[in-house]
Amino acid sequence: MSDIKINWDGHIEKYQNAMEELNLDFCVLTRVKSITYLTGCFVPWKSYILLPKKGMGNPTLFTVLLDVERIRAEAQSSIDVQGWGPMKGFFWEKKTQSAAKKAGVYNPKGRPPRIGVELGIDICVTGQMLSYTEAEYLKRIFPGCELVDFNEKTERIQFIKEPEEISMLRKASEITDIGQIAVKKELIERPPGKIFTENEIAGIGTLAMRKAGSNYEWTFTGNEEIGSGYRASWTFNGCTPATNKEVQEGESLLVDLHSEVGCYLGDLSHNYVLGTCPPELKKFNDVYEQLCYTLIDHMKPGITFDECYEAVHKVAEKEGYGNDLFFGIGHGIGLIGNESWPVIVPGKEWGPMVFEENMVEIAAIVFNRPGLGGLRLESPTLVTSKGAEVLPKTRFEVDYV
Question: Which class does domain 160-400 fall in?
């Protein structure tokens, strides 16, 4: 565990300040990113936080019974931890109602409460937005209640990172660098005739990162993502869970490693070619490197996501590869569960957003042409007043081993 101190109770206060702005009586929070942010703990189960307004006591986390004792021991904020399960006396909605009464934020004989909840759809399966069924349960146990979407507050609170959070993300990136160094070393030192599978490469990176202090491979897309040859080259290919496919010489090999330390995440993708690289693939790789540097050059305060995307896409178009660049060139990163918002894409919804100082975003390039090759950049990047600071030290250039 790192000696960097995160103010987890300060996170609770941030949420409660946002609740005051919306005039809420309490929140029932379900998103993994909120649960992690308010507990400072890995909570893998379907769970709920009852967050009363300021001055009405500590929040309560309801998680499945089998994990209560561990979470009580490892939570780092002033949060009460209770168990729930699908049995009489342990239903989460009933326990939430009791906790709200006890905190004094719900009176069955008073006015119906305004309840903050996290509504919507997340592109990540780990999002855990409030479901229709859960919303119906809340309406049943809090008759006449008004469910108020708290999602915008959740996103904005976690968007700009505190100095300690940046330090944790920097540490997580140091660990992914260690993983890539270990992979490269094994590839360089492979004996004649040795052929690696994608799963072997995943194991090499994982072992090195575990030894360096990573707790688990956080991504829901298959732990370490290792893609080679045709598996790296599918159109818009952004998901390559490792398989037993053998890595051949002269084909694209992307190694996407994930770390976690103190609840904060690292995500680093790097590209290799073993043996002799075909000239056409080398040209493709060279354009990829241009795209990476163009992206970093445009991750500056005040630049819109639209402007950033257009600058990167212009390079791909000029080189004749405009259709091979995926339109998403970045996504959020933070603590466990915070792995999507905001997404750097053009268009009405996201395009007008601007880069802001102290946001940390995964700089991402997905550049694929079926039958030729596929490359991926994912690298946590801090936006500063002077421009972008890439947190990992692994270079963008393809490694020819």
Answer: alpha beta
